[in-house]
Structure formats: C-alpha cells, structure tokens
Amino acid sequence: MAIVSLRGISVSFGGPPVLEGISLGIDAGERVCLVGRNGEGKSSLLKVIDGDLLPDGGQILKGSGIRTARLSQGVPAKLDGTVFEVVSSGLGEVVELLSRHRRITAGLESGGGEALLGQLERVHHDLDAGGGWRAHQRVETVLSRLRLDADAAFSDLSGGLMRRVLLARALVSDPDLLLLDEPTNHLDFDAITWLEEFLASSRQALLFVTHDRMLIRRLSTRILDLDRGRLTSWPGDYDTYLRRKGEALHAEASESARADRRQAQEEVWIRQGIKARRTRNEGRVRALEKMRRERAERRERIGTARMELQDSEASGKLVVEARDLSFRYGPEKVIDGCSITIRRGDKVGLIGPNASGKTTLLRLLLGDLQPLQGTVRRGANLRIAYFDQHRAQIDDAISVGENVTGGGDFLTVNGRRRHVVGYLQDFLFSPDRVRSPARVLSGGERNRLLLARLFSRHANVLVLDEPTNDLDMETLDLLEELLFEFTGTVLLVSHDRAFLNNVVTSTLAFEGGGTVREYVGGYDDWLRQRPPAEPGAGRKKPGKKPRRRNRDDRPRTLSFKEKRELEGLPEEIEALEREQGELYTAMADPAFYQDAGKEVVRTTGRLAELERLIAERLSRWEELETIREGST
C-alpha cells in the first residue's frame, strides 16, 4: 500500500516543465533510486514530496501520520548550535530533553552542585516516560559511525562535514519515508559501508538520488527514471534498468528518425507546383500539420557529453619515486616511511578515511609540500593537470568561458582551434551558460567546468582529487572510458568504489598511523588482499547484531573493462575466423604448394595459432556472457 502518492504533478521554473504530469506511488519498506541527468529535476521532486516546493499542478497524497525526512544537497542558512543539537533536532519533542540532559551532565563533570543532580533525576524520568533513551542511543550511534564531534559548533564545520551532520539528522529522525539527495558525498568507505547496512536493515521506505552505482546495486528495489520532465518506473535491479533503458532510447531514436523522414517527404509533396496543390488530399494536409505540431512539441534528449583528452608528449618511464617519506601536522603522524614507485601509464588510486593524508601525499609527490624525512624523485618531461576537490581553481567572478580560456573566445584542442562556446557545449553547457558568471553554477556544473579546464591542457599526468562528486551516470561512464584509454599516468583520489574498480591498476591504501600500503587492482581487489583486522580491533558492545550481507552471495557484475572487452569480442572473433578462412582458401589452391616451403610452414603455423586464439576468445566470450546473464 502506497504511503505517498503523487498524481499529475507539474513544476516549471519559466522554461520547459521540469516535472510534467508526474504520477508516483511509494510503498512502505520500498527502497527506490531516482536517476536522471544533472538538471533534470530530481532534487525538485524530492522537495515536492517533502513539502518544501509547491507544484504548479497535481496532488500529493500522504497516509495519516506519515512523516518524511530529507537530506538536501545544500546546507540550510542560519542553522546553529552544536553538532549534537543539530542532529537531535530531527527527533521532535525529545530534543529539548536530550539537550538539557547533555548540559546537566557537562555541568556535573565540571564540578556542579547537588542542585544539578535533582535536575538530572527529573530529566531521566521524563526521558524514560517518553522513550527518549532509544532516541538518544540512535543519536550516539549515528554520530559515532559518521565520525562527528558532538560538541563541535556546526557553524565552524566545512561544507562536507555540515552535510554529514544533516545526513545524521535525517537518519536519527526515524521517518516513514527517508529522502536522500547524494548521501555518500563526503563520506569515506567505512561510513558508506555502514550507511548501506543501516539503510538495508531499516524498515522505513527510502527514495534516494546518488551517482554511487555500487550503492544503487546494493540497495534499490526499483528504479525511477526522470527524463525530460517525464517519470518512468523500472522494477528490478540497476543493471536490468540500464539494459532496458538503452533499448527504449534506441527505439525512441529510431521512431523519431522515421517520423522525421515521413515529415520531410510530406513537406516535399506539399511544396510541389500548382498542379499538385489542386489535387492534394486535405486529409494528407491535416496529417502533415499534425506531424509539424508533434515535431515542435518533441523534447529532444540533451546530447551526451563529448570529452576528449589533449594529446601530449610522453613523460619519461619513471614518473615519481618516493623513498621513506614522512610527514606530520603537529604531533599527528600523517605519513610514516612511505616508499612507492609510479611509472608511465600507471593508474593509481588513493583510498582511506577522510583526513587520513591522501591529498597530503599527492602534494608531496608533486612537490607542493616538502617531506620531513625521505626523498622524492620526479621523472623527466612531466606535464601535470590537477583536478582540485575543493574546486578552488574556478574563479567565481568571471564567466564560465573565461575560466577555460583565461580570456578570449578561442582555444586549441588537439591541434584544432575551437570557439569556447562549441568546446563547452561538449561538456553540456548551453551558450547562455558559457557567458554566465561561474558563481551561479550547480555542483555538477562546477565539476564539469573543472573537467573542461583540465582537458583543455596538454598533460601526460592527471591528478584527480574526488572528480566524481555530483556527476551524472553518463558523464561518469565517459570519464571512465577516457581514463581507461589515456596512455599517460593517473593519480586518483575517490570514494566511488565502482569508479576505482573500473579505472585504477593499483591502489595506495591509508591504513592508520601513517601507514600506506600498495595493492594490485582496485577497490574490490583491496578488500580481498588487505590484512585481517587485529583480534578485538573495532569490537562493538554487545547488542543487536546488524544484518550483514555476504559479498560472495551477490551475483557478480561485469566491470567497465569487461563490458568493453565483451563488446569487442564478436568483432575480434570474426576477424580471426575471416583470416582463418582466407588461409584455408589459399591452401586449397594446388599452386600454393609450388612456392617455397617456408611459406607452407609459416601458413600452417599461423593456422594452428588462429585455432588456439579463436578457442580462447570463444571461451572468454562465453565466460563474460555467463556473468552478464547471471547479473540481470
């Protein structure tokens, strides 16, 4: 039974409708993922459901007493108090009791008198009566797992920590429907894993927006797709949705092309000479007028981003070699005795908890910081392009276009002179947006602008510090493909587990106490190879054991590299079989054996090799197809 229903919801902000006749029902206990490109209206739909945005038309129906809680992408203004107070503000009437309990306890710890003991007793009684202790336990648990300092002033936190506090507030409120907009942004792996388990074991309904494909695969029971104002529902898992959505878009493109051809033919017919006009069929004229109206009303899908990396002269074989690096911030040991060698073509991921030292290590390797101990040797002919996670390279005071060109209207990309408007259209910026000041850009647009700046530079070393935040799925897929094909070196800091799996060839893991270890492969490979935890490490207090899911019980899905391999195998097998057929045809000609014997030996050797290669490729194709079918 639906706890929230939307009927015919429409929202417009002056242009084409963001939401056009949306109808939706969410049942109790459902975990629904809302997907769509940046700017399609996903956040607006969450606001409508939460009641923060009034629609232009339609109805919102909620069951009696149904409560919602929402994590937005932005941070509300004028939110003050300690972290504990902000988080517990999601608990309704219990908030004041919990705040009073915390103040009285702090007073007693600092030497308060007996009067405080009496106050504490009364607060204890009220908390017992109102079920406040369970709420208090939820707050303490969430604060601990999200690594939040309960006594810190909210206003003193960074933007990323503020969003983490707001996530905690939404989680502890225990609503009937939880609305989460990019919940994994600014979380490290431990926090993301805990959040997955928390949400998977929760009884409440969930509607969430995320670019974290692993989170979608592990949580969603249904996919909602928002595309050009229209909402469609796709039961089943994410990979099934991707396949069926691709088929639907292909069918739509084919139908649009057929309609355009029919209209073009009719336009030619109606523009024929006077003789044709005298005999034209009025029904056919009306049909053409209908075609024209439908074509005018058709909302074309925004094109896919078309990004390309600048070619650059190759670096030396050695990119950077570090020996026994150590670095501290005050007494805190960030890096202790780190030794690594990075060579041309390596794609290295850096993973670890927030503030563990990943950006510090990058700065040491690039020469922006000097180690307290150890040495760093950099190779020859390094041309480095840097993607800053804080987006400090963007100047908000100038236009989007000027941020790329530095002034002027043209830039040169891979030897071609291009106008900045055309170049930025490849990154899905409209001409008006190119001329707008950068300060008006959304988070996703700022990331795309930073990528546009990055890719306009000649580079053979790419340093990417959290490049995936706020990017839509299609842009993520394209960025993965570019980095996969990039012949230079990549240093990548990311909490996007699927992105790491699909891009990096080795991983540097920050494992506490300044220890940095190197592992072959991406995130999943690190999970398999990392040393087991020390006995008793991280042991929790007795209590209800959280439900865990065995990774081995889930169907394996193809990685990005494996998908590319599977797509290319039929063509590769066909080419091998074609060569095999040509050699057999040549050997069937009696004249073939009249030539020198060396050619006969070479050809028969090549045939044996082809037979082996074809058998290997067919076996690999069957293996990948089995994995693909098993995950759908």
Question: What tags apply to this protein structure?
Answer:
20 strands; about 45% helix; Helix Hairpins; six-stranded mixed sheet; alpha/beta; Rossmann fold; about 625 residues
Provide the structure class: alpha/beta
- Determine the fraction of residues in helical runs and give it as a percent range: 40-55%
**Going across the major beta sheet, what is the strand order?**
5-6-7-3-8-9
The CATH class of the largest domain is Alpha Beta
The percentage of residues in β strands lies in: 15-25%
Low-pLDDT runs of 5+ residues are 535-554
Radius of gyration: 30 Å
Biggest sheet overview = 6 strands, mixed
Q: Counting H and I runs of at least 4 residues, what is the number of helices? A: 21
Q: Please tell me the CATH architecture of the largest domain by its name.
A: 3-Layer(aba) Sandwich
Q: Fill in the CATH topology of the largest domain.
A: Rossmann fold
The beta-strand count equals 20
Taken from the alpha-carbon principal axes, the silhouette is globular
Compute the separation of the termini in Å: 27 Å
Structural notes for this entry:
The chain is of the alpha/beta class and 632 residues long. The protein has 3 domains: 2-100 and 131-240, P-loop containing nucleotide triphosphate hydrolases (Rossmann fold), CATH 3.40.50; 318-532, Rossmann fold (3-Layer(aba) Sandwich), CATH 3.40.50; 560-630, Orthogonal Bundle (Helix Hairpins), CATH 1.10.287.380. Helix content is 44%, strand content 19%. The protein is built from 21 helices and 20 strands. A 6-stranded mixed β-sheet has the order 5-6-7-3-8-9, with helices on both faces.
